[in-house]
Automatic annotation (TrEMBL):
Keywords: Pyridoxal phosphate. The keyword Transferase does not apply. This is Aromatic amino acid beta-eliminating lyase/threonine aldolase domain-containing protein. It comes from the Eukaryota. It comes from Kwoniella shivajii. InterPro entries: ArAA_b-elim_lyase/Thr_aldolase, Low_specificity_L-TA-like, PyrdxlP-dep_Trfase, PyrdxlP-dep_Trfase_major, PyrdxlP-dep_Trfase_small. Its cofactor is pyridoxal 5'-phosphate. NCBIfam families: GntG_guanitoxin (NF041359).
Amino acid sequence: MTILPKPAAEITAEIGGQDNVDTLHRTSRDFRSDTLTVPTDAQLLYALKASRGDDVYGEDPTTTALEKRVAKLTGKEAAMFAVSGTMTNQLAIRTHMKQPPHSIITDYRAHVHKMEAGGIAMFSQATTHQLFPSNGLHLTAEDIEPQLQLGTNIHISPTKLICLENTLSGMILPQEEVVKIGELAKKHDIGMHLDGARIWNVAASEIEKRGLDATKEQDRQTVLTELLAPFDTASLCLSKGLGAPIGSIIVGTREFIERAKWFRKAFGGGIRQCGGIAASADYALTHHFPRLATTHALAKRLEEGLKELGVGIAAPVDTNMVFFQPQEIGLSLDATMARLAALPDPIIVGRERCVVHHQITPEAVEEFIACVAEMKKEKQANGDIQTNGVGKEEKAKLDHYNKPNGKTTDAVLRKQAALGY
Ligand SMILES: Cc1ncc(COP(=O)(O)O)c(C=O)c1O
């Protein structure tokens, strides 16, 4: 396990200023998202030395070098930098789509479908067919095959793209399933796009599983190339787990990327002197990627600590996210959040979803667990919680919601939809 340097040491008052030292401290206890990470002094000093050319003219060597680096890492011909994951997803989808009628298959929780302001309809004039995974966790080729819109029936908008997301709510999509879906897509001449906002987390997990070295470019390349092989294109966020201040990258064929640049221009997404932000992302890729395994270990610790208390965990913790349900021990989510936020050194969570990022400290995780333990103890002392750790009333409600008649139902699927980020 990689040991995280103390975040406090990463911004100094002399270089970053006291306000930013304080921001970093608050962020080290903020579980709302991995987008919240604070650029470090070293990262911004590195950015200072970046080239300062105009990337819309293709004349910024630092940006070009980052694009080449990510293309090579992912085994694709070319790459294109843009400001956000929403933009790279939407640009990729727009580039895949030619002319309506056309449709896209996604998981019903997919960010591209649910969280990008209806961008697919707006920019690509496409219909999204949202599918519900029959196993409740991830789509399979068996889920997708019968839903493909093929043939010449004029009532139907043909499937032109399958868009998967990995990780989704922190869960890893099994690669053997991705391969099967890729084969299915190929058979029907349908494109495959990956929203790989957090594919870095999948790669970090795989590197650890195989005993490879996350600091070695070759090991990263081996794993990322395999993960992305079934996809024609992928969008990889730099500003989530990696901790770049801005940026996301599309990878694909040279021809695809050239066309995507056209759309990036039309979206107003070209960046002139892009070098500084590309350099911050490049720094993050080199220095923060190896820390992802630690964020996963801390997420596991949070899961285990909460589980020991009887707290419900709503989704498998494969990487850096923990969806917790304190209602299982009779604590309301609102009360738990309020109590964590009221600690002398506050801990912030974004409802059920707790995201461990590279600046979260082990102390914050332990204090999180200790705070919930304290609340549980108080509840028990007040007689509100049964001694087996289950709040009768809340548990009955939750059980009814999750599994009426002991079966997984639409209610569970709706809950998972609510958890889709
Ligand atoms: C899975 C996923 N894809 C895409 C995005 C969009 O990224 P951005 O916020 O950079 O637009 C997000 C943002 O949280 C995300 O979680």
